């Protein structure tokens, strides 16, 4: 888990830096339509790749919280009393557990963090353009 969380953190930072410099290159290159079109194609591919990654993690998170809801509507109440109590305790405790892919919730690669990546890359690109 720690290894995957470190990988998620590095992916987050790498994406912010990549999109920042792609935007900076796209704005500062003047006149070369072939180079601009290649940068746009690479940017679209990178955006799609990060979106797929964030979407997959978001689906994992959604499924991890919806499993107890679906299990609650099953016929677990037809069992013996001790088994029902175990199922009920299990359902109530798993309802509170979410499948997170980050340690301490610092960076979660979900769909809201995809938008945060784009916002931070845009802000960093504006800062680079201001400095230039």
TrEMBL record:
InterPro entries in UniProt: 7tm6_olfct_rcpt
Domain of life: Eukaryota
Transmembrane segments: 12-33
GO CC, alphabetical: plasma membrane
Keywords for this protein: Cell membrane, Membrane, Olfaction, Receptor, Sensory transduction, Transducer, Transmembrane, Transmembrane helix
Intracellular or extracellular location(s): Cell membrane
Example of a GO MF term: odorant binding
The keyword Transmembrane is assigned to this record: yes
GO BP annotation list: signal transduction
Keyword set includes Cell membrane: yes
Membrane topology: Multi-pass membrane protein
Name this protein carries in UniProt: Olfactory receptor 129
Organism this protein belongs to: Aulacocentrum confusum
């Amino acid at each position: 888990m720690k290894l995957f969380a470190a990988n998620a953190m590095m992916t987050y930072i790498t994406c912010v830096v990549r999109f920042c410099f792609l935007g900076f290159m796209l704005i500062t290159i003047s006149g070369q339509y072939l180079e601009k079109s290649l940068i746009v194609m690479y940017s679209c591919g990178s955006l799609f790749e990060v979106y797929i990654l964030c979407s997959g993690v978001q689906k994992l998170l959604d499924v991890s919280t919806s499993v107890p809801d679906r299990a609650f509507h099953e016929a677990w109440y037809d069992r013996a009393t001790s088994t029902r109590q175990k199922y009920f305790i299990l359902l109530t405790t798993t309802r509170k557990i979410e499948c997170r892919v980050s340690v301490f919730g610092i960076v979660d690669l979900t769909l809201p963090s995809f938008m945060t990546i784009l916002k931070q890359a845009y802000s960093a690109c504006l800062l680079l353009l201001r400095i230039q």
